Amino acid sequence: MSEIRVTYSGLISLVMGLGTVVTGMIFILIVTRSLNPEELGTWGLIGGLVTYVIVLEPVISYWTTREIARDVNSGKTAVVSSGFFSVIGFVIFLIIAFFVSTPTGADVDTLFFASLMIPFTFLNRTLSSIAIGWKPQVNSYGILSLDVAKLPAALIFVYYLDLGLIGAILSMIIATSVSIAVLGIASRTKIKQSFKKDFLKNWLKHAWIPSYMKSAQFMIFDVLIFSLLTGSVVGLAYWVSATTIGTLVRHSNQITRGVYPKLLSGGNKDYLQSNLMKLFFISFPFMGFSIAFAKPGLFILNPIYDVAVVAVIFITFRSFLHMLNGSFTQALQGIEKVDTKKSTQKEYLKSKLFYLPSIRMIRRGVYLGSLTSGIFILIQTGASEIELVIYWALISALAQLPFTIYFYYLVRKNFPMSLDLLTIAKYLVISTIVFGGMYLLMEEFLEYDLSIFKFLTNLIPFILLGVFVYLGLTYLSDKETRKLFKAIILEIRQKK
User: Fold this and answer.
1) How many Å apart are CA 11 and CA 137, to the nearest integer?
2) Nearest 5°: phi and psi at 161?
3) 236 close to 41: Cβ distance less than 8 angstroms
4) How far is CA 167 from CA 159, 175, 233, in A?
5) String of b and e for 98-131 (b: at least 16 CB within 10 Å)?
6) CA-based Rg of the chain, rounded to a whole angstrom?
7) Helix (H) or strand (E) holding 245
8) How much of the chain, in percent, has pLDDT values that exceed 70?
9) What percent of the chain has pLDDT over 90?
10) Greatest CA span in the chain, whole angstroms?
């Protein structure tokens, strides 16, 4: 049995995740305030290209997490193998960058420079996969160290030296290096063993499983399609700003971080239900916060992007559904045992490791088709950049909904599920009332000062008031919340 403590690792991951919300917002604030719309759009394009290229990395990390959780010492082999795969990813990034630079209007030299991020990203993700399979909270230390390291790097290269987009890329490389160091030191006992070709041979033999799972990402060329169809990266600047606010809810899934490796190691299926209740308790106020503070949040990033409020709302719902999808599918994959024995390829094809990615492939195909056709039609009608971004956000949310329902149906078939709907509704109603109230108060009393420091001084009291009122009302009205608070205190008191 693994050393994973689900509640403890979830709480640590959540606290770290909340820390990264602050550091991440400061970093993106520096970037959005320092880069012009074309540069910020190129930054979004780079992020999309990196996502597509690292589709190769799970060939290693996917199996590593499952093996480490089951006390198989494949860490050293994973780290070394990741280096080989990063070279391939580096070359692929250069090729894609060369072909997309002209039609999107992005500077090709900047895109080529961004390719230096690839090997660092590969290694960091591999070390993260080792940490997740062993002690999920260690992965959170790596994430926090990355976000904290970004700040001084961005202040130096983006703000003071005024290197623009090049400075942002340098900041990410330096920050990722710090994260690699933290994860490497924390997980050193898991990567001391010798390199074993048998591990690599087995991963390559079954590489089609994680490759198939991640190949659906090639079907989400949303960033690339949007920029190619519009012939500009300016719209991506609005998208980057809107997603910065709208994806805050994803940080709440840190509370379920320990469920997947715990199930892999043979843990009780009841862990999923208890953690889902905690997830709803945390995610609803995150959603309320993102929607209520959409306008001031965009104003902080840069006043020119505050027209993207509607996009933030749709992205918030998309992020919530995406987060649920991830929790459901990881739980289902966590109880799959096909890779614990000498299974045939046919047995792998019948397993959840293949079936679930197939469903995601369908979902992403629907999303991509709807996005492409809709954007093309809207362009013909003369739609503005912001209207295109709002449509993009709407389609991304609608495409998630039916599949979230289906994944929940699968979870109900495979897990003992008896969610307390009354309590969930209580969390939702309280979140709506509290953050709806905050929205009305801000509309009446919040002053939008161009000075970022003065504006933050005006805004922070509203943020703190919303958080404390939500926690106070749920604590007073819900016994499950009181139990959670007590569980947090007990977990903190226990030794690691």
Assistant:
1) 9
2) -85, -10
3) yes
4) 9, 12, 19
5) eebbeebbbbeebbebbbebbbbbbbbbbbbbbb
6) 22
7) helix 234-246
8) 91
9) 28
10) 66
| pLDDT at residue number 416 | 82
Element at 306 (helix H, strand E): none
Assess if residue 219 is contained within a domain.
yes
DSSP 195: P
Is residue 65 situated within a structural domain?
Answer: yes
pLDDT at residue 440 is higher than 90: yes
Per the prediction, the chain carries an average pLDDT of 84
Q: Which helix or strand (DSSP H or E) is residue 487 part of?
A: helix 479-493
How confident is the model over 474-493, as pLDDT tens digits? 888 877 778 777 766 665 56
Q: How far apart are CA 386 and CA 243, in angstroms?
A: 13
Q: Using CB atoms within 10 A of its CB, is residue 35 exposed (0-12), middle (13-18) or buried (19+)?
A: buried
pLDDT score, position 27:
84
Helical ranges in 446-478 per DSSP H:
452-477
Is the pLDDT at 496 greater than 50, yes or no?
Answer: no
Residue 287 lies in a domain: yes
Q: φ and ψ at 233, to 5 degrees?
A: -105, 5
By residue count, the chain amounts to: 496
Q: What is the pLDDT of residues 156-165, one digit of tens each?
A: 999 889 898 9
Q: Does residue 447 lie in a domain region?
A: no
Which candidate, 302, 256, 246, 297, places its Cα nearest to that of 276? 256
| Total count of domains within the chain | 1
Segments forming the whole domain that contains residue 404: 6-419
Find the helix or strand (DSSP H, E) in which 117 lies. helix 117-134
Instruction: Give CA–CA dist 131/65, Å, rounded.
Output: 8
Q: What is the pTM of this model?
A: 0.77
The closest alpha carbon to 283, from 314, 317, 310, 240, belongs to 317
- Residue that is written with structure tokens 């002690």 in the block: 135
Which one-letter DSSP state was computed for residue 116?
A: T
And the tokens for 164? 């623009």
